[in-house]
Write a structure and sequence with these properties.
By secondary structure, the chain is α+β, with helices and mostly antiparallel strands. The protein has 21 helices and 6 strands.
Length: 448
């Protein structure tokens, strides 16, 4: 029987052309991630990484840094990956249960141009390879892996991104499989770190690990090619209570970015809050609700969501991103959430604190979730006149099923640049829209 990693690598190698839809969606994901990186560059989590390795960031290396300057490839991936995920505004990819692009884009940038100019199209093809590899690995372990407490960004994200980096470095099937095997040995990240600076660091570490695994594989280092499925391998140790394995896995004719897509975030907070936020905003707009009208808000979410959202009374902006109570109250009062809502000065506004006390969150049971990949998140609002309003969301705004339009994407990018103190008047967004036709990725990167 063929080991799984060579089969995944072989299937990835067979996809030599990509549809225009796939390329456009990959381009949009790269643009969104660069915006999130710029916005997150000054976050304390990123500055801590820069402080830890400050002497090495400018001393050597020629790989672009979102904080300015250059660095060796591993450090560039670490810094840029941490920045991409620092504000939790970067996209989600459900098949991997991961912030796919926050790992892939920094990892690929860290090797782009290594010995040759990397065209925009070649970069996007490597991105799509890495995304499909994440989906393949995630197929066998999720949602059980994620529900057990593993941060898919750090685990599945690392292994899949290694395949994307390997493609950009010109690896063959065997080297790609070995890159993924080696990445399995350095993939880790507990969700217990959510709400702390370690959480965005997970994305940076994953990007760095993907780069190093691919480079090691090309240099001849090797691991077991059955490490995903064998005893004491990834499935055995990381699979959780009910992993399904890969017996039924096969890639579809269309790329996963076409069939499943990514979720481009509308709100700069944990994705576990988004469907409830969107459902509440739907009710607010339909019924012209204000906080003064409401006696109680109840929301029912998935098991993984309630485990992620552990901060009922957040003490800082990072915790607030993982607080359903804060996010729902703020969204209702402000008609949405913005980056400034997670500044320390915003956390204790009296109107929001008062509404938070009237919010309750429950979850499905394990039995209710069994056999379902996803269940809708429900919001029930009880008004002072006794009226009870209910609404549910299976998909968040920004998903393939309810996508952001071109203007919304542009506005989000502009907001990210403004937050990062970057001049938004240099037509950077329009330049990035031309990414598939650029002869060098250097033409797309802003001067920081």
């Amino acid at each position: 029987m063929t080991s799984l990693l060579p089969e995944i690598a072989r299937r990835l190698s067979l996809r030599t052309t990509f549809s225009e839809i796939a390329m456009e969606r990959a381009r949009d994901a790269v643009i969104d991630t660069l915006g999130c990186m710029i916005a997150g560059a000054s976050d304390p989590a990123v500055q801590a990484v820069a402080g830890a390795f400050g002497g090495e960031l400018s001393a050597s290396g020629n790989h672009w840094l979102v904080i300015g300057g250059a660095a060796p490839s591993s450090l560039a991936a670490l810094v840029n990956g941490t920045a991409a995920h620092a504000l939790d505004f970067d996209d989600n990819f459900h098949p991997a249960r991961a912030h796919a692009s926050a790992v892939l884009v920094p990892a690929l940038l860290a090797v782009a141009g290594a010995g040759h100019a990397t065209s925009g199209r070649r970069f996007l093809e490597a991105y799509l390879t890495g995304l499909e590899a994440q989906a393949a690995v995630g197929f066998g372990v999720n949602p059980s892996h994620y529900n057990r407490g593993w941060h898919g960004t750090s685990t599945v994200g690392t292994i899949g991104a290694a395949a994307g980096v390997a493609r950009l470095l010109g690896a063959g099937i065997e080297q790609t499989a070995q890159a993924m095997s080696l990445a399995t040995s350095i993939a880790c990240g507990p969700k217990g770190q959510f709400g702390t600076p370690a959480k965005p660091l997970h994305a940076g570490i994953a990007a760095r690990n993907a780069v190093e695994a691919a480079r090691l594989a090309l240099a001849g280092s090797a691991g077991r090619l059955d490490i995903l499925e064998r005893p004491q391998g990834f499935l055995d140790l990381f699979g959780g209570d009910e992993p399904r394995g890969w017996a039924d896995w096969h890639p579809e004719d269309a790329h996963v970015i076409e069939t499943r897509g990514l979720v481009t975030k509308r709100h700069p907070c944990c994705a576990s809050t988004h469907r409830a936020i969107d459902a509440l905003l739907d009710l607010k707009h339909e019924h012209n609700l204000t906080a003064a009208d409401i006696v109680r808000i109840e929301t029912k979410v998935g098991l993984s969501a309630i485990r992620n959202l552990v901060y009922r009374e957040p003490e800082n902006g990072m915790q607030a991103r993982f607080s359903m109570h804060y996010c729902l109250a703020t969204a209702l009062v402000n008609d949405g959430l913005s980056l400034k809502d997670f500044e320390p000065s915003a956390l204790h506004r009296p109107q929001i604190q008062a509404l938070m006390s009237r919010i309750e969150m429950t979850s499905y049971t394990a039995e209710e979730e069994r056999g379902h990949e996803r269940l809708p998140h429900h919001v029930t609002v009880t008004l002072k006149d006794g009226t009870v309003l209910r609404h549910a969301r299976l998909h968040a705004k920004g998903s393939r099923e309810d996508a952001l339009d071109a203007d919304q994407r542009r506005r989000k990018f502009a907001d990210c640049l403004e937050w990062g103190g970057y001049d938004a008047d240099d037509h950077l967004y329009d330049r990035l829209l031309a990414l598939p036709s650029l002869s060098s990725m250097n033409e797309a990167l802003p001067s920081m």
